[in-house]
Amino acid sequence: MYINDETIERFLKEDVSYIDLTTLVMGIGNEKGQICFTTREDMVLSGVEEVLRIFGKLGIKTIQSLPSGTIIKSGETFIIAEGLASNLHMAWKVSLNILEYCCGIATRTKRLVDKARSVNPKISIVSTRKSFPGTKELVIKSIIAGGAFPHRLGLSETILIFKQHVNFLGDFEGLSQIIGQIKINACEKKIIVEVENETEAMLIAGTDIDGLQFDKVPISDLRSLVEKVRHINPQLTLIAAGGINESNIEGYASTDVDAIATSSVYFGKPADIKVTIDKY
C-alpha cells in the first residue's frame, strides 16, 4: 500500500497544530523516554508502518515492531520506540488512533473471512466503497491485512451497473439492449450488474455480461437463484451484497456465490491498545 508523505504529515499536523502546550509548560520536553504499544485483546495488526513513519519524522527511534497483518494475542507488545519526551507525546495519540482504528478493521475483516471460508473455502470477501472519506488508504490496507480485498477502489476502476443507472434506460430490458455497445466501449473491462430479484437476474443473465451482484436478496431465495443463474450461464461471477455481516455471512457463503461484498468491516469498536510512555 502506497501512502505518500503528505498524508503522513497531514495525520500529524491535525493533532499538533503548533506545539504540545502541556509538555512545553511542564519543562519535560528534552527528557529521553520510551513508548510501548501493547494490545489488550487478540487482534490483527494494521497501520504499524504508518506509525513508524510518524516516528521517523519526529526523530523517534524504533527499537521493536511487528508488521501489519501479524496476528497477536492479548498482552503482546508490538511497538517499542525511544526519543525525546516532546516528540513521544506528539506521536502518542495520532499513532494510537491510527492503530486502534486500523487494527479494529483488520480484526473484524479476519473474523468475516474465517467464518465465510469455514463454509466455502474458495469464496472471496471484498469491501465496498462505503468507507469514511479521507481514510481510504488506511482502510484498504487494513482489510488486506485481515485477508480481504477491495471490491472497487473507485468509479474509474470497474463497470458496476446499479438500478440508479438502469433508471435512465427505462428498465432492465433497456439495459439488455445496450450491453453489446458497452462491451465495445470498454472491451477490456468486465461488466457487473446489480440485481434485486429473480426477474431482473433472469433477464440480464443471458446477455453478454460478466457477473451479477445480488443486493439484499434473502439467503433462502439467493440459494435457488444462484442455481438458476448458473444453469443459464455457469461462467458468470456471482456476488452477494447488502447487509452482510458477522451474524449472517456463513449463510451467504453457503449459497455458492463467488464473492461477498460488505461494508460491515468499517464500522465497529476500535481495537483496545495500551500505550505507556516512561522516562528512559
Automatic annotation (TrEMBL):
<dbReference type="InterPro" id="IPR036068">
    <property type="entry name" value="Nicotinate_pribotase-like_C"/>
</dbReference>
<feature type="domain" description="Quinolinate phosphoribosyl transferase N-terminal">
    <location>
        <begin position="20"/>
        <end position="103"/>
    </location>
</feature>
<dbReference type="InterPro" id="IPR022412">
    <property type="entry name" value="Quinolinate_PRibosylTrfase_N"/>
</dbReference>
<comment type="pathway">
    <text>Cofactor biosynthesis; NAD(+) biosynthesis; nicotinate D-ribonucleotide from quinolinate: step 1/1.</text>
</comment>
<dbReference type="InterPro" id="IPR013785">
    <property type="entry name" value="Aldolase_TIM"/>
</dbReference>
<keyword id="KW-0328">Glycosyltransferase</keyword>
<protein>
    <recommendedName>
        <fullName>Putative pyrophosphorylase ModD</fullName>
        <ecNumber>2.4.2.19</ecNumber>
    </recommendedName>
</protein>
<keyword id="KW-0808">Transferase</keyword>
<dbReference type="GO" id="GO:0034213">
    <property type="term" value="P:quinolinate catabolic process"/>
</dbReference>
<dbReference type="GO" id="GO:0005737">
    <property type="term" value="C:cytoplasm"/>
</dbReference>
<dbReference type="Pfam" id="PF02749">
    <property type="entry name" value="QRPTase_N"/>
</dbReference>
<dbReference type="InterPro" id="IPR027277">
    <property type="entry name" value="NadC/ModD"/>
</dbReference>
<feature type="domain" description="Quinolinate phosphoribosyl transferase C-terminal">
    <location>
        <begin position="105"/>
        <end position="273"/>
    </location>
</feature>
<dbReference type="Pfam" id="PF01729">
    <property type="entry name" value="QRPTase_C"/>
</dbReference>
<dbReference type="InterPro" id="IPR006242">
    <property type="entry name" value="ModD"/>
</dbReference>
<comment type="similarity">
    <text>Belongs to the NadC/ModD family.</text>
</comment>
<dbReference type="GO" id="GO:0004514">
    <property type="term" value="F:nicotinate-nucleotide diphosphorylase (carboxylating) activity"/>
</dbReference>
<dbReference type="GO" id="GO:0009435">
    <property type="term" value="P:NAD+ biosynthetic process"/>
</dbReference>
<dbReference type="InterPro" id="IPR002638">
    <property type="entry name" value="Quinolinate_PRibosylTrfase_C"/>
</dbReference>
<dbReference type="InterPro" id="IPR037128">
    <property type="entry name" value="Quinolinate_PRibosylTase_N_sf"/>
</dbReference>
